[in-house]
Amino acid sequence: MGVSPITSHVLDAARGQPAQGVPITISFAKTSQAAAASESRVIARGVTNSDGRCPALLEPTHVLVPGVYTVRFDTKTYFALHGEKSFYPFVDVAFEIDQPAPHYHIPLNLAPFSYTTYRGS
Fold first, then answer.
1. Containing H/E element for 19?
2. Are 26 and 46 in contact (CB under 8 A)?
3. Which residues 6+ apart lie within 8 Å of 113 measured at CB?
4. Cα 89 from chain centre
């Protein structure tokens, strides 16, 4: 069984546990100028599972092409599930691929008033 070429893992740093129920979308634009001009198109949608992961965002056979990908985490929806407000209604993590690799992992450490991300493996 293959894996989505773009994966994510969301951890709720305030609770010290995976963040289940975070809606995620992935958008694609051919250039950074197009992405900045909101000319991206949504290529995937999902919701994190009990482990804070969304393993099937894209089909394993999906071929990534050069361009700008944006992973949007709907943090407002997640915190509302817990009866909390979030300073950040969403978190966009945009990254540019010149020469596509087989896999990109985009983790998010989340709290109501902060977040961090990095390129995972």
1. none
2. no
3. 86, 87, 88
4. 14
